[in-house]
Amino acid sequence: MPRLEGHCWSCSCSTRVKSKYLSSASWLASKAGEMMTIISALLGHAYGSLHHLQAANLLRRGLVLFTVGVFLALVLNLLQVQRNVTLFPEEVLATLFSSAWWVPLCCGTAAAVVGLLYPCIDSHLGEPHKFKREWASVMRCIAVFVGINHASAKLDFANNVQLSLTLAALSLGLWWTFDRSRSGFGLGITIAFLATLITQFLVYNGVYQYTSPDFLYIRSWLPCIFFSGGVTVGNIGRQLAMGGAEKPHSD
C-alpha cells in the first residue's frame, strides 16, 4: 500500500507540473502573438506613412519640374519667335509671350517626366549620380543651356551645318561639365531622338514651321537643343531627389 500511495502522489505531482508548464507556455505564446500583432500593425502604419511621404515628395518634385519647364519654354520660345526662327500661324498665337498656349504646357509636362525619370534610372542601374551634386552646379548648367539656345537664334554662320556642329560641341561640353554619367548621356540621346520625331510630325502637319529647314522639316541643330535640355532637366530632377541636402561631390 505505501508503494501504491507513493506512486499515486508522484503521478499527481507530475501532472501538476506538466499542467503548470503548459499554462506558462500558452501564456508566453499568447503574449508572443500579441507582440507580433502590435509589431505588424506598427510596420504597416510605418509603411503607409512612408508610402504617403514618397507620393507627396514625388508630386512636389513633379510640380517644381513642371514650373521650371513652363518658364524655360516661355523664355526660350520667345527668343526663337522674335528672331523668326520658329513661325506659328497667327490664329494659334496667344498674348502671353507671343507663344502658342500648348508649347509651355507640353514643355512643362516633358520636363516633369524627364526630371523624375533621371533619378529613377540611376537607382535602377545602381549607379547614383555623384558628380557635382550641388545647386550651384545646377544653376550654372541652366545658364549654359540658356546660352546654347541663345546661340542657336543669335549666331550667324555661313551654313546650318557649321551652326549645328558648334551647338553639338557645346551640348556635349555641357554634358561633360555637369553630368558625365552613362545614364545621362543615354537618356539625353533618347530624348533628343524622340523629341525630334515629334517635332517633325508637328511641323509636317502644319502646327508650326521653321525658317530655312535643312533636316527634313526642321533645323539640323534642334536635336542638340533637346539633348542639352534633357541633361539640364535631368540634373534638376536629380538634385530635387536629394531633398535639397548638399553633399560633397566626387570628380
Automatic annotation (TrEMBL):
Pfam families in the cross-refs: INSIG (PF07281)
Keywords, comma-separated and alphabetical: Cholesterol metabolism, Endoplasmic reticulum, Lipid metabolism, Lipid-binding, Membrane, Steroid metabolism, Sterol metabolism, Transmembrane, Transmembrane helix
Principal subcellular localization: endoplasmic reticulum
InterPro entries in the record: INSIG_fam
Membrane topology reported for the UniProt record: Multi-pass membrane protein
Segments crossing the lipid bilayer: 32-50, 62-81, 101-121, 157-178, 185-204, 216-237
Cellular compartments per GO CC: endoplasmic reticulum; SREBP-SCAP-Insig complex
Record function comment: Mediates feedback control of cholesterol synthesis.
PANTHER family to which the protein is assigned, alphabetical: INSULIN-INDUCED GENE 1, INSULIN-INDUCED GENE 1 PROTEIN
Protein name: Insulin-induced gene protein
Species this protein is from: Lepisosteus oculatus
